[in-house]
From TrEMBL:
Residues 122-216 form the Rhodanese domain. It catalyses: uridine(34) in tRNA + AH2 + O2 = 5-hydroxyuridine(34) in tRNA + A + H2O. Keywords: Oxidoreductase, tRNA processing. Signal peptide: none annotated. The keyword tRNA processing applies. It comes from the Bacteria. The keyword tRNA processing applies. Its EC number is 1.14.-.-. This is tRNA uridine(34) hydroxylase. It comes from Stenomitos frigidus AS-A4.
Length: 300
């Protein structure tokens, strides 16, 4: 059965976020939907997967809240459930940047429709910035976009302060996976004095869904935060796997590297592999194989 993977977020004042947690979790569990939903006073952010009817039921439940009636979502599809369980968590932020002036409920940049995005980023006066982290950028990005080389979104404000200048970068275009990080990044940059800040509405995922490959300026694949690892144009599953030791996306070429040992290390984490870590990961790999073997045996 094909499963629907729905992603959504909305910045909205949810002063009763804690009261929403349990009812929302119960609703998802009753529909056998799995994934993660984050709730905070600044809004909601989630990715869930389940049968068509189940996803529709959860989205209807969310939109029955007067504050979420216009909640938008994006869909892709998976042949197997990409999540192990359902979690509804309370957080200080629905996407963590760590600076109070990054408040999309107060101000936000100009949304750019995916079909208009090529024209914006092709303008030589526009500085195009990928707001994602290094491991995400490494497998795909927009042509000629700047890579901040961040390890976490918390480092983005320091990148702006040290590498960008409102007096020099008059026009800035930001993009991220689904659009949520760009909302915070644009709010922060506006607070820092940048005058024209654009961001891709719906993020890379919406662009890959709507813009034909022969018109696309996207190069590579887009990392996603579930067991699909990456998607391509049309949101079909990509070619990357994930290192079970460090979580970095790995290609077939990475798997062919002498540094790659399944469940032990890959070219991106082998330098940090100590004997203690090797022993621990070997034990975990053996345990995983034993559990898989037991699960394939018929019940007695």
């Amino acid at each position: 059965m094909t499963l629907v993977v729905a992603t959504f977020y909305k910045f909205v004042r949810l002063l009763d976020a804690a009261e929403k947690q349990s009812p929302l979790l119960l609703q998802c569990q009753s529909q056998d939907v799995k994934g993660t939903i984050l709730l905070a006073e600044e809004g909601i952010n989630g990715t869930i997967a389940g049968a068509r009817e189940a996803i529709d039921a959860v989205l209807s439940f969310l939109r029955s809240d007067p504050q979420l009636t216009d909640l938008e979502h994006k869909e892709s599809f998976a042949d197997v459930q990409p999540f192990d369980r359902m979690k509804v968590r309370l957080k200080a932020e629905i996407v963590t940047i760590g600076v109070p002036e990054a408040d999309p409920n107060a101000q936000v940049g100009t949304y750019i429709d995916p079909h208009d995005w090529n024209a914006v980023i092709s303008d030589p006066d526009v500085t195009v910035i990928d707001t994602r982290n290094e491991y995400e950028v490494s497998i795909g990005s927009f042509r000629d976009a700047e890579n901040p080389h961040t390890r976490s979104f918390r480092q983005f404000p320091d990148y702006v302060r040290t590498h960008l200048d409102p007096a020099k970068q008059k026009k800035v275009a930001l993009f991220c996976t689904g659009g949520i990080r760009c909302e915070k990044a644009s709010a922060f940059m506006l607070a820092q004095g940048f005058e024209e800040v654009y961001h891709l509405q719906g993020g890379i995922l919406k662009y890959l869904e709507e813009v034909p490959p022969d018109e696309s300026l996207w190069e590579g694949e887009c990392f996603v935060f579930d067991q699909r690892v990456a998607v391509q144009h049309g949101l079909v599953p990509g070619t990357y796997a994930m290192c079970r030791s460090c979580g970095h996306p790995i290609s077939e070429a990475d798997k062919a590297s002498p540094a790659y040992e399944d469940g032990i290390a890959c070219p991106y984490c082998v330098d940090q592999l100590t004997e203690v870590k090797r022993d621990r990961r070997e034990d975990l790999s053996v345990g995983t194989l034993q559990v898989a073997s037991l699960q394939t045996k018929p019940a007695s």
